[in-house]
Specification:
Strand order of the largest sheet: 4-3-2-5-6-8-1-9-18-16-15-10-12-13-19
Number of strands: 19
Radius of gyration: 23 Å
CATH class of the largest domain: Alpha Beta
Distance between the termini: 22 Å
CATH superfamily of the largest domain: Endonuclease Chain A
Number of domains: 3
Strand content: 15-25%
Largest sheet: 15 strands, mixed
Structural class: alpha/beta
CATH topology of the largest domain: Endonuclease, Chain A
Number of helices: 20
Mean pLDDT: 88
């Protein structure tokens, strides 16, 4: 605090007054945005306690785009058709148009929510395959790309110039030279270290490469904060992948000093692939202004006897925090158990309330988080939430067989979610995310069994021992929690 006081005292009087007026003005704007009070207070403290630096941090990370929308989707016919289909399903859902079993139909309020808040169309002609870990996922992905005949669409947060990344690059180049349309979106922050040579080699071969919200001086603004964390691959419009893995060696080989990388991905064929294609299409329009249309890209939605799935996207381009609302509704409506695996546990206040209320009400709520993390400050932030969860009866486990990066929720053996969204502020309120919301007992059982296997390789956190952890750890955790809305 002495250093901060010296900075304040060393500023000339006029500069101090101007800075004070600027801070007051920005704080006033933050208050008028009616944000979560915790986030509002956090940002005001940053502005007050970090002279000048606080303003820079706010300009980079603090501006709220959800209410003003990141970009316009006007003119995208596929989204207009999707909205019409979801409105029709909203009318038909009370009549059980899909002839959903009585047990699965108990989750119809969640289905209705996702139809309303994100136009997440219900598709029931899907085949799903749960992919566990990198070796299995990359084998399936590369095999599917090899078999592509018309188009390959990818958008990923991280692609690295390593063995996995270069295998992907060479395969995309090969398919483009065979005449397959290849479109590739990468996130400029997540894939920050990708060299121009890597990208140019694909472009020269005919791959259409575009960057999601480029961050370059002097355009270095809050775009740093709103990142495309989605991981979508769609092949020929009928096969798709979504989940937690990016294209980098560590997702297959693990992290030095921590161990193997544990993750979950999903392969989808059927209407869910079309839904992911529509999400990709909107993002591709944003980065390239090219509109994709026609049945060669968008297979018609057809009824069937497969798995029931809603593909749900959320982010600053959405009216609602749809994935966060789905998490809340799924947890709050549980009647038996809730199993959650997440690499970062920094929940919003409503999610915390749902978790604690369910546990206090006798629901078996269990959460697996990494024992060792790839990011130290989010790990401290995660730890800051554990004590209050334990006090409410939530069971928390530290995964000890490496690093778990799975983003999975299973509820009552009926509903499950696999996707890109972590249980933290950034995923639920800031980033562009996408999750598969699945209503199927077989898939729920597979994911529940995998959760219990991971639990066997985890250490349960006991309240008595956790309360007595070192005071210095509690201090670090408290400061990390204060910053968690901005992490």
């Amino acid at each position: 605090m002495g250093i901060l006081f010296d900075i304040w005292m060393s500023m000339p009087g006029l500069v101090t007054i101007l800075y004070f007026l600027t801070v007051v003005f920005i704080a006033f704007l933050i208050i008028l945005e009616n944000r979560n009070p915790v986030k509002t207070i956090s940002w005001i403290l940053v502005l007050v306690l970090l002279p000048f630096i606080g303003i820079v941090i706010y300009l980079f990370f603090g501006q709220e785009y959800r209410k003003t929308k990141m970009y316009s989707r006007k003119g995208l016919k596929s989204l207009e058709k999707l909205r019409n289909l979801t409105l029709e399903q909203l009318d038909n859902l009370p009549k059980n148009h899909f002839q959903i079993s009585d047990r699965l139909y108990s989750k119809r309020r969640l289905m209705n929510l996702l139809l309303s808040n994100s136009n997440a169309i219900l598709t029931n002609n899907n085949e799903l395959r749960i992919l566990r870990n990198g070796e299995e996922t990359f084998t399936e992905i590369f095999s599917a790309i090899e078999q592509a005949r018309h188009h390959i669409h990818l958008e990923y947060y991280i692609v690295e110039d390593d063995t996995i990344g270069n295998y992907l690059r060479e395969l995309l180049i090969k398919k483009a030279r065979e005449g397959v349309e290849v479109r590739f979106i990468y996130d400029d922050v997540g894939s920050w270290e990708l060299k121009r040579k890597f990208l140019r080699s694909m472009s020269d071969a005919g791959v259409k490469v575009d960057c999601f919200m480029r961050v370059r001086f002097p355009m270095l603004t809050s775009k740093v904060n709103y990142r495309n964390h989605r991981k979508i691959l769609v092949i020929d419009g009928d096969t798709a992948f979504v989940g937690g893995l990016n294209f980098a060696d560590r997702y297959r080989d693990g992290v030095p000093g921590i161990g193997p990388w544990r993750d979950t991905h999903l392969k989808v064929t059927g209407g869910g692939a079309t839904a992911l294609q529509i999400i990709f299409m909107a993002d591709w329009y944003f980065v390239s202004k090219e509109i994709l249309k026609g049945e060669k890209y968008f297979k018609p939605f057809e009824s069937g006897n497969g798995k029931l799935v809603q593909m749900t996207a959320s982010g600053p381009d959405s009216d609602w925090e749809s994935i966060g609302q789905a998490y809340f509704a799924a947890i709050a409506s549980a009647t038996n158990y809730v199993y959650i695996s997440t690499p970062y546990l920094m929940p919003t206040s409503d999610i915390i309330t749902a978790l604690k209320t369910s546990a206090l009400g006798g629901i078996d709520v269990r959460i697996i988080v990494p024992g060792m993390s790839d990011a130290i400050t989010p790990k401290w932030g995660t730890n800051s939430y554990i004590e209050e969860l334990l006090e409410a009866g939530v069971k928390v486990y530290f995964y000890r067989a490496g690093f778990t990066h799975s983003k999975v929720i299973v509820v009552d053996g009926l509903f499950s979610s696999v996707g890109t969204a972590n249980l933290d502020f950034r995923s639920l309120e800031t980033n562009f995310e996408v999750n598969a919301m699945i209503y199927d007992e077989e898939i729920a059982d597979i994911l529940a069994d995998q959760f219990l296997e991971d639990q066997d390789q985890s250490e349960q956190v006991l309240l008595e021992e956790w309360i007595n952890r070192p005071r210095i750890d509690k201090i670090k955790e408290s400061f990390a929690r204060l910053l968690s809305p901005m992490l």
